[in-house]
Write the structure tokens for this entry.
Amino acid sequence: MRHLAKLCTAAAAVVATLAGATTATASSAADQRVDGVIVVAGNTCTWTNATTSATPPSTLTVDRTTVNKPGGNLACGGGITAALNNNPTFTFDDATATARTDFIDITGQQSFVSCRYKATNLVWDRDGSTLKYVNRAFTATKTSGSFLCPGSVTTPVGGASMLFH
């Protein structure tokens, strides 16, 4: 059961990570890429160099095929696998140093247990003047999966970050 809780938390954490966004002024060096990190129940989920459709602070989407394997390199510790089911859209507000994501839909799996979660209206805070954003607390609701999956999982403030470059 402990591993199942980690799986569900990991799915929610990946949701959080994928929901990141940036509002800082774009530089000419920006390459329309994003890296994500999330620590879940002691396990870290990461990816690097996922493709975005634009450069912040323009509204953009993250291409899930460049996050998920085989095109991307999303990986989690603790025997958990995860996959992003949508291409999240991000909007940015430089005046408030925040970003918003409409929704994130993610599936996490460990062994034979699969859990799918959706989080909506996610808010991210910019880290100083960088293009790094950290999440505000949010709850992801189960949309399908094993009866062993919790009905919802909560990711605390700072449980995920996104770095646009």
Notes: The radius of gyration is 15 Å.
